[in-house]
Amino acid sequence: MGRRSLVFGLWLAAMVVAGLWLQARLIIGSDLRQFLPRQTGEAAPWLSLLTRNENAGLILLAVDAGEREATIRLSRRLRERLLASGRFSQVRNGEPVEDETAFASLFEARYLLSPDVRSEAFTVAGLRQALQARLADLRAGMGPLLQRTLSADPHNFFLDYLESVAAGTRSASVGGVWMDREGRRALLVLQIGGEAVDARQQRRAVAALREMLESLSREQAFRWLLSGPAVFADTVRTAIQHTTATVSLVAGALMLFLFMGVYRRPHWVLLMLVPLLSAVVAGLVATQAVFGQVHGITLAYGITTLGVCVDYGIHLFSHLGRDEDGVHGVRRIWPTLRLGALTTVAAYLALLGTDFTGLSQMAVFSASGILAAALTTRFVVAALVRGHPGVRGETLVRRLLRGLGRLPVGARQGLVVGGLVIATLLSVVSDRDFWADDIAALSPVPPASRHTYADLARQIGLPDLSHLFIWRGDAPEQVLQASASLDDQLQDWIGTGVIGGFASASRLLPSRAQQARRQAALPDPALLKERLARAQTGLPFRAGFFAPFVEGVAASRTRPWVEWADFQDTPLAPVLASRLYREGGKWYAVTRLVDVRQPERLRQWARAHPEAGRAYVNLRRAVSAHLAVFRERALQRLLWGGLVVAGILWLSVRSASRTGRLVLPIALGLALTVLILVLAGVRLHMFHLLALVLVAGLGLDYSLFLGRAARAGGIHWRDLHGVLVGALTTVMAFGILGLSGIPVLRALGMTVAIGATACLLSCLLFAQPRSASARGGPGLSH
Amino acid sequence: MISGRSERVGARLVLLAILLVPQAVLALTWQTVVAEIAEQATTPVRFEETQYRFYLDEPLVSRGRMRFEPPATLIREIADPEPMVLTIEANRLIRQTPDGRRREVALSEHPLIGNLAHLLLDLFNGNVADLADRFRVGFASGPGGWSMRLTPRRDRVRQWIKVIRLQGNGGFVTRIVIVERNDDRTELRLRAEGDGSP
């Protein structure tokens, strides 16, 4: 067996072993909490809300059949067919919903649930008032509504309770179905499955829905619009798959042409897969071993960033002379390549130990991947390369070098001045707050789709998440009591027009303390019977008709407390789950405010009542503030990472001025990248920062290969050749990614493409071109 | 035995009778009646409503005025015995009393009220297709006016309403009777404003 076969066999065996280990152990996580700060100590309780993903199964559907009547009929038909399909737990279009029997168990508990249960309601005057109110209801046409409950609940406690707690929808209705504000499109709200909706359920339900709509549209022409989290998830998944396929195909084809043109060996593109595959496998193994799982985002983002590992192979190919053996050629570049890999790893490791587990995962994934790619290039790719016919482009690169050599001596000073100008411009621009701390900036959903969803949701009257109160505690009773303590204040705010309404946990499930007070207000059955008889005098109700009422009150005096579990088989279970839930061993109660008209009053109140006010959250602001804190911390860590990188470089070159010449072009390249992005109107966020770490790694690579020549009297054309080809492939691949419709991928692609170009230019201008002796050839020694 | 001549005379009489019947009566269908109702829908009417309920010892009567504002607002002003205004609009039933109290009910949550409201809105909008979609319609007409019998098609309406009977003349509805599943009954008598008849 030859050496090449042996090396390749060993590498393949290592890959197979790692692959088998991963097959047995690998867990791909999807828990978004890993990309949110850990909820420890006094961390904000609202973070729990962001991780619940409770709207994952929500779909909004708008249909337009042209004629209004046809649209209304279509809405009804759709509702029937969608319900019959069994894929949706709820399909609402404004048509009556009836399932009163499902409320039976809660009806039994009406005297503990209703906030209106007080002792005055059971006096003769209170009872008579209730009976007269019911007669007025009958005259108002509500007889059928009361019919089932009147004899057992003459106060109407239960229906009032249901009315106050049900998640209301306020869309305009025409012909009994919800229509948009123009009265043109019918609106439907669909819910997939139960509480926990996974990606597969989303995909299947959305596919089935699209199929049904297409099938119906063949029978009757109509237009439709789908929106909502489940649709976004499906669309984004498809778009990411499409983008990935496009990038892979186009970048692969371009690289094939490039390799054919430059290295005359198109099949060497396949050799590029060796370090890339090794990097991904090593990243997976290390992350799985350290964290016990690999998050999907880590995997997707990590693989993208590891794409730069192809540069290592490119450096090798560019440095090979005609018919030179790879094992021999790689020795010339290995010290530089090793230093580049180590410094990039150091930059990534700066992200270790942040509050965000996801970022630590990315650091481990990328760092181990880069190390593996460098080692594989050194020991595997180099062993497999032989019979190089000689690279093309030497003349072009030499011409470029000569051009650089002719730059006047003052050019560097000009660069320094340029750097200062850039820094000044940056500081001016920074006053304009170029950081995007709005969480929407991190969303993979295009802004236009988000606006459409927000508009439809507003028209249907879905709750707004922006303003809320949230309490955390060890037991449901603790948080329910805290929630209950605010209900009266919220009621006052409705009266004074501060808010339009609220949906609290304690209104749905009262605390035991509230239930106990209500139970104590219920009279003895004999006394109630006597008072009822007096209250009925002169009213047309038949004697004995209210016997179920007396029995119900008697039963409620001794019944057990209503608990969270009592709601589980009722239609109110999902409503309660969104207001009272357990997360990470803690209980949370949430009160959502509806139609907040005077947010300043809320803030004033929170400031005046620091204890109770701590529960108030303006979610959008809170998330923004949190992201700003994260960004500050990340910047600090990256600064420290930069210092560590500089330290490693100093240890390697043992010269402060040389270290400075290596680091300064990267710093300028990064500053230029940020400046270009900001001037282009881009607001920077977390993913731009991560992309800048990648740019710093690329810059280090360029700086080291171009800067190492300083010792030898100037840049060797082969160094520049490798750097140029590497930069070209990077700009091509990430440039295509920068055209993606997915904002996060676009941010990554744009930043890396611009950053690679900026760092290349800056490194070229800072490096020392070899003027007289720039005529290296095959076997040239460095 | 009837002679051939008698047969011919009989046939001519039938033909004559057919020719003498006004064309309008021949063409009268429930659809044309609904269309006529829609034409006069915005004319305010006075009403007297009588409810017969199994748990009441005596019927419950209320009187007032009702008007329709296209396309989907129905206003019922009860004057006697207890003043209140009921407005059906945009899937809501809004109840207002003279002391300023206001209460809203979402019709989508209440099938019977919702369906009755939609029935009236469909009638006043001349929405024949929607009515046919929701009800089986029986129709009869004669010199004294027309009558319509609406039987719900959908189970969820049928579990509340047995039948709705309407009577009228031309485009004017004079009486609506709603018979519920338990035989409770609501009778609505309507007359044009200024019409002194009971």
Describe this structure in words.
The complex is a heterodimer of chains A (782) and B (198). With 782 residues, chain A is α+β, with helices and mostly antiparallel strands. Chain A contains 30 helices and 13 strands. Mean pLDDT of chain A is 81; it is low at 771-782. Chain B has six helices and eleven strands. Chain B has a single domain, classed as Lipoprotein localisation LolA/LolB/LppX (outer membrane lipoprotein receptor (LolB), chain A, Clam). Chain B has helices at 4-20, 23-27, 30-39, 111-125, 128-134, 155-158, and strands spanning 45-52, 60-69, 73-80, 84-89, 92-96, 102-106, 135-142, 145-152, 161-169, 172-180, 185-192. Chain B is 29% helix and 42% strand. By secondary structure, chain B is α+β, with helices and mostly antiparallel strands. In chain B, a hairpin with a 3-residue loop joins strand 2 and strand 3 (73-80). Chain B has an eleven-stranded antiparallel sheet. The longest helix of chain B has 17 residues, at 4-20. Chain A binds chain B through residues 69, 72-73, 76, 92, 94-98, 135-136, 138-145, 147, 150-151, 163, 166, 168-169, 171-176, 178, 540-542, 545, and chain B through 49, 51, 53, 55-58, 60, 62, 71-72, 76, 78, 81-82, 84, 86, 90-91, 93, 95, 105-116, 118, 121-122, 127, 129-130, 133, 156, 160, 180, 182, 184, 186.
